[in-house]
Amino acid sequence: MRDRLRLAIPNKGRLLESTLALLKDAGLVFEAHDRSLVSRVENHPLDILFVRTNDVVEFVADGVAEVGITGGDILAESGVPLPRLRDLGYGRCRLTAAVPTDAPYDTIADLNGVRLATSHPNVTRAFFADQGIAVDVITLSGAVEVAPRLGLADAIVDLVSTGSTLQVNGLRAIGDILASEAILVTNEASLAQRPGELDAIVTMFGSVIAARDCKYLMMNAPATKLGELEDLLPGLESPSVIPLAHEGMIAIHSVVGADEVWGLLPKLKTAGASGILVLPIEKILP
Ligand code: AMP
Fold first, then answer.
1. Ligand 1 pocket check: which of 159, 161, 164 to mutate, most ligand atoms within 8 Å of Cβ?
2. Which CATH superfamily is domain 5-90+181-211 in?
3. Which residue of 56, 148, 168, 211 could cross-link 281, Cys pair, CB 3.0 to 4.6 Å?
4. Ligand 1 near 13 CB (within 6 A)
5. CATH architecture entry for 93-178
6. Cα-to-centroid distance, 110 and ligand 1 (Å)
7. Which residue has the least CA distance to atom 17 on ligand 1?
């Protein structure tokens, strides 16, 4: 057995930048060389393999890497039953059925009998078979969105995040087939033989992902306002309350959802808080 775990990650494409950010935010120190396949993590027993996003599943399934990061859609399309360790919260997209704007189809059920172009033929076939809708699936490796304009297909099934590519190509979404995001996967052998090491990786990434959704709030207030302020602040369990040198004053510290901060600040001020600080959190281990 290798003494260092190997993590296979995308070497280019849409998931590269966010994957490198996750690894760096987790505190892993390594050099991401442009052309090298393997990078040694200096401060953790881990080697990083840079491979094509589509090949990550193969590397992990074959045991060349014990863990890998790829898209949920790619794992589903591969049909390989790799255990998922966790969702990673980026690379979010949907595999969506779309038709030309003026086409006479409004729902997925309307697609009975059409020619459908996609780069995800396995997921697409399985989905339509499951729904009892007969479609003729045409497999393309890229530029799926131009297939209807070229007369190659009546509809497409493609990955969409904002929908702007569909719009630019005169297409309209009519229904989702799969929701996807970046995922951390492993293989059965590693799960059985190296659970502690996998757990360490999951905790490392999980703590970063949890922290991204939260902010640390610090504020001062008169002690008499504690009840009112506490009602506004959930915290991880309950807010920390610290007496200040100035008699009758307290400091309150709390963790809040990043999305809630702007709504919360005016309410805290009205309830008597002052000197409010909003700080980023590096990691959270609940
Ligand atoms: P790549 O082919 O290396 O650029 O990676 C494509 C992967 O990025 C897809 O399989 C998805 O998992 C993910 N992804 C996230 N958003 C999108 C999007 N809008 N279009 C295509 N792929 C996306």
1. 159
2. Periplasmic binding protein-like II (3.40.190.10)
3. 211
4. yes
5. 3-Layer(aba) Sandwich (3.40)
6. 27
7. 93
Going by alpha carbons, the residue nearest to atom 14 of ligand 1 is 91
Beta-carbon contacts of 214 under 8 Å, excluding residues fewer than 6 positions away, are 255, 256, 257, 258, 281, 284
Between CA 191 and CA 204 the distance in angstroms is 17
Q: Is the CB of 70 under 6 A from ligand 1?
A: no
Count other Cβ atoms within 10 Å, centred on residue 237: 8
pTM of this prediction exceeds 0.85: yes
3-state helix/strand/coil string of 63-98: CCCCEEEEEHHHHHHHCCCCCEEEECCCCCEEEEEE
* pLDDT, tens digit only, all 286 positions of the chain: 889 999 999 999 999 999 999 999 999 999 987 667 999 999 999 999 999 999 999 999 999 999 999 999 999 999 999 999 999 999 999 999 999 999 999 999 999 999 999 999 999 999 999 999 999 999 999 999 999 999 999 999 999 999 999 999 999 999 999 999 999 999 999 999 999 999 999 999 999 999 999 999 999 999 999 999 999 997 667 899 999 999 999 999 999 999 999 999 999 999 999 999 999 999 999 7
User: How far away, in angstroms, is 257 Cα from ligand 1 center?
Assistant: 27
Highest CATH level, class, for 213-279: alpha beta
Residues of the chain with CATH 3.40.190.10: 5-90+181-211, 93-178
CB of 212 closer than 6 angstroms to any ligand 1 atom: no
Q: Any residues with CB less than 8 A from the CB of 125 and at least 6 apart, and which?
A: 137
Domain ranges in the chain with CATH number 3.30.70.120: 213-279
Q: Could you identify the atom of ligand 1 that is nearest to the CA of residue 71?
A: 12
C-alpha 91 – ligand 1 centre gap (Å): 7
**Of the candidates 102, 115, 120, the residue with the CA atom closest to the CA atom of residue 147:** 115
